[in-house]
Every structure is written in structure tokens, then in C-alpha cells.
Q: What sequence folds into this?
């Protein structure tokens, strides 16, 4: 067998396998994905008791830390900034949970 | 003795007819040729009952954390929207070409009748099970082989809110930063 063939036989499966291993890492998604379009958000319509609204705020604050002061928070209903802290582990903060 | 003979004859006949059908090639497996009503009903009932039973004892965690919508949203956009669509989209190559067709998860259950959906807990359980294990001989993959339960529950939480989202909300929630 030619050396080239041997190399190919080793390299092709290795690359294929390592690619499948990486395919499910969320950071892979970032490459072709577009940025969140936060400009169309209508804050006057957002109810901060709604997880969807809170999640959108989190996303947009993370995306653009510097411009967060330009948002007009005064119009939002039930705004609670403590729920939007940049901590990753809000899932563990079960204490402020209300049903 | 007579009954035994009759039974044996019936069994042999049954096997012979199954083999005839299998090898004659008369069964149409084309995805663009729908099942007959009887076959459709048989498969649908079998699937629904199988999922119901398998998902029965799954414990549903708290799905109200906003963070789940962000993780689940990004995953949904990347892995599921090509088949299950998104707000503002009514068809895709996959949604039209696959048979059985992937349900449009961006519209509420009321808009697709034909099978029961049960209460919220029940549908969360069923969705979790389907996402984790997939559905045989359909386009629905088993995502549990490559994703942990945490990621799957996040998608369940996202799917729950998906029918209520506008295209703009969907874009913000699912975009990667
Ligand atoms: Cu359904």
C-alpha cells in the first residue's frame, strides 16, 4: 500500500469522527448564525412577568452591554432588574419563584 | 385434534400471505404516496399509545426559567426549524417532502386535529420523550444520543411557548448572541 493511501485511511476517519463529536457544541452554531435583532423590540408592550420578555431582555443585554442604558425601561410593566442580572445560573435561584 | 389442525392451517396461511406481500413488491414505500386510511390509522394508534405509555412516568421539571427559552431557542432554530418550521414560515423542503410529515410546532395544537394532546404536563412529557428517543421509520431523529436531558428540557420549554411567539420574538430568542 502506498504511504499516501495509508495516510488517507487514517486521516479521513479521524476527521470525520472528530467533526461529529464537535457538531453538537452550541458554539458551533455561532458561525453562520445571525445576531439578535433587538432594534424592533417594543418595550412598552413588554410584560416583565413573562419569561419570553425576560429572556429577550437578557439576550439583548448580553449582546450589547454598552447600549443598555439607551433603553427606556420606564415604560415596561413589572420590570424587575434583579431577574435580569448577567448571572448564568439563574436556574439555581429558585427562591424568588412565584406561581 | 380438528381444532389444532385448523389453527395450524390458519397460521401457515397467515405466514404465506405475509411472505407473498413482502416479496411481491406490491407495498409502495414512496414518501410521496400516502398510506391507505387503514394503515395510517394502525400506525397512528400504535405510535400514540407507545409514546403515551413510555412517557408516563417521566417527571417534568420547572420549565418557567427564561434561560431555558434561550438555550432551547438556539437549539431549536439550529436543529429543528428546518422540519418543524418557525413563526411566519408555512412550509420547507422537509415539511413538504417528509412522510409522515413533521408537525408545524410554531402553531398551536388546536390547529392540527386528529390526535389528542392532553394537558400541559402530559404534552411536556410526551415531547421530551419524542425528542430524546425519536420516532422509528419517520424523519424524527433521537436527539438523546447527542444531547443531555437538560438541553432537551430546554427545547421542551421553548416549544411550549413557540406557538405564541411573533417572528420578531423568535428571531431575538433564537439568535446566537
Ligand atoms: Cu400534535
A:
Amino acid at each position: 500500500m502506498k504511504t499516501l493511501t495509508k495516510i488517507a485511511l487514517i486521516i479521513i476517519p479521524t476527521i470525520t469522527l472528530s467533526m461529529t463529536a464537535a457538531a453538537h457544541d452550541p458554539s458551533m452554531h455561532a458561525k453562520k448564525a445571525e445576531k439578535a435583532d433587538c432594534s424592533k423590540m417594543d418595550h412598552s408592550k413588554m410584560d416583565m412577568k413573562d419569561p419570553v420578555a425576560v429572556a429577550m431582555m437578557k439576550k439583548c443585554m448580553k449582546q450589547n452591554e454598552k447600549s443598555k442604558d439607551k433603553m427606556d425601561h420606564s415604560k415596561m410593566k413589572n420590570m424587575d432588574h434583579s431577574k435580569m442580572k448577567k448571572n448564568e445560573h439563574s436556574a439555581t435561584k429558585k427562591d424568588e419563584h412565584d406561581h | 385434534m380438528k381444532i389444532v389442525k385448523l389453527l395450524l392451517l390458519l397460521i401457515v396461511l397467515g405466514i404465506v400471505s405475509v411472505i407473498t406481500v413482502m416479496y411481491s413488491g406490491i407495498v409502495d414505500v414512496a414518501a410521496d404516496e400516502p398510506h391507505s386510511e387503514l394503515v395510517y390509522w394502525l400506525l397512528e394508534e400504535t405510535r400514540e399509545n407507545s409514546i403515551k405509555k413510555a412517557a408516563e412516568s417521566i417527571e417534568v421539571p420547572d420549565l418557567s426559567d427564561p434561560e431555558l427559552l434561550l438555550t432551547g431557542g438556539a437549539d431549536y432554530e439550529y436543529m429543528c426549524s428546518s422540519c418543524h418550521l418557525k413563526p411566519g414560515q408555512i412550509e420547507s423542503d422537509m415539511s413538504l417532502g417528509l412522510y409522515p410529515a413533521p408537525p408545524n410546532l410554531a402553531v398551536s395544537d388546536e390547529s392540527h386535529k386528529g390526535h389528542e394532546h392532553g394537558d400541559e404536563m402530559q404534552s411536556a412529557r410526551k415531547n421530551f420523550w419524542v425528542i430524546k428517543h425519536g420516532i422509528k421509520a419517520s424523519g424524527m431523529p433521537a436527539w438523546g444520543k447527542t444531547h443531555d436531558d437538560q438541553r432537551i428540557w430546554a427545547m421542551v420549554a421553548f416549544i411550549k411557548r413557540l406557538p405564541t411567539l411573533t417572528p420578531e420574538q423568535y428571531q431575538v430568542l433564537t439568535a446566537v448572541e
Q: What stands out?
A: The pocket of copper (II) ion is lined by residues B 103, 109, 112, 115, 117 (CB under 6 Å). The interface with chain B takes residues 23-24, 26, 29-30, 33-38, 40-41, 51-52, 54-56, 58-60, 62-63, 83, 88, 90-91, 94, 97 of chain A (CB under 8 Å). Helices of chain A lie at 3-22, 26-29, 51-63. Confidence is low (pLDDT under 50) at residues 85-99 of chain A.
